[in-house]
Amino acid sequence: MKQGWLVIVVTLILLGCTDAPVSSPSATEPVTTNPALAPFIKVYPASAAAIINAGNNFSTGDIITPKLSAAPGFKFAALSSGESELGEVTLNSADPIIIHMAHDSQEVRIVATNTELRQAVNESVVSGNRIILLQPGNYDLPETVFVRETANNLTLRSLSTNYRDTAITGNAYNNMFLVRGDYFTLEGLTLGGTSHSERKFVRNHIVQLQGEKDADYLTLRDNRFIDSFEQMIKVSTSSDRTKSGDYGLVENNLFEFTDGKAPQWYTGGIDAHNANHWVVRGNTFRHIHINHLADTRLTEGAIHFWSNSRDTLIENNIIYNVDRGIMLGLTSSSGHNGAIVRNNMIMTNNDVGIYLASATNVDVYNNSIWLNSNYANAIEYRFDGSQNNLIVNNLTNAQVRSRNGGQATVINNVTNAQADWFVDWQSGDLHLAQQPESVIKRGQYVEGLNQDIDGQQRPIDGIDIGADQVQIN
Ligand SMILES: [Ca+2]
Ligand SMILES: [Ca+2]
Question: Rounded to the nearest whole angstrom, what is the distance from the C-alpha of residue 345 to the centroid of ligand 2?
């Protein structure tokens, strides 16, 4: 089978690599790629380069000479110049060419075997500044990858950018990745579990970002996280809360237990303490629930930011077959300040869909929530510390309710959704299968609400309630 990305990477490698600057990558400007080429050429990550060919009509079989421009802070995986022609390529939408981009500071290493992966990792965990590209296959890491405070800009990415063909299994150690450096990145990989023990699970976390070491800018994109015994992703903080893990990006990942249920109650998807400015977007979380006939305790939320985390954006996620959905704060003393929670689809089995505890300045809008239980509340805002919250345009089958003195402005929610309104609530697909009069075009304008979970535009005067916009004109 012809593999376009392999050809391109090898071509670029042959062209050589000059010394890279040592500075950390700067915040990147969004770039406009040529959309007509998108089925054939995939820039990874998408914001790292623009395809600047002229013209708009490309089809399978065309032979073109693509020209690309790297975004500031990025380079082609083995080129240092900011602009490049890739040579002649034949366009084939079933087998897109993947253009791998690296941060300016990163040396590129391609690995194909366990030995090569372990060696590349061991060489990188102190000095960082490397992108390790994995050929498709199954790898294992017998020891925790301990990314030191001095190791910034370390990336592990599959060459295919597809988690289905590249996996790294762990061992029954506490953490698969223990991260103290900035800009640690995992992309396009299946991660977790173990092949080394009768115990199937990584004991604690697949990734722990140590906020107590001030580690920031973790990026997790397009991965599948499976089978950790505790929360899959953990962000810890210092006991005095002066240091924190900030500016994380968790995008388009799948989090799941492969047994279809969690191994115990003390688990979850993302569990972040005192974390600031995180974005959790476009992920699927499933099967984070336990057998409540055996143990009545609840798992943590699929997404949980607490211990006074700040400024979290949680959008476009699908969460189903879980005990609890999205949690901000936990108790009267562990809260959250500043968040947007929008366009999420959530199906829980035992408890609340969205939970705000001692939460302030949180906007919860246009989420769809189905409770597969008799639990009374789809959305809760709880404790005196919950102030100045806005809950609007949500579609649920259970009430939105204050507990223990929590305050919020609650308007324009529809809380009597019926099962047949949705495409398939069992799998978390809360797209609308019908067009209920109380839902269609009944949403209120909310500043910042421009799209739905599918990326479809929200007309200002015709917003549908819930995560799915069906009337786009
Ligand atoms: Ca920090
Ligand atoms: Ca839609």
Answer: 12
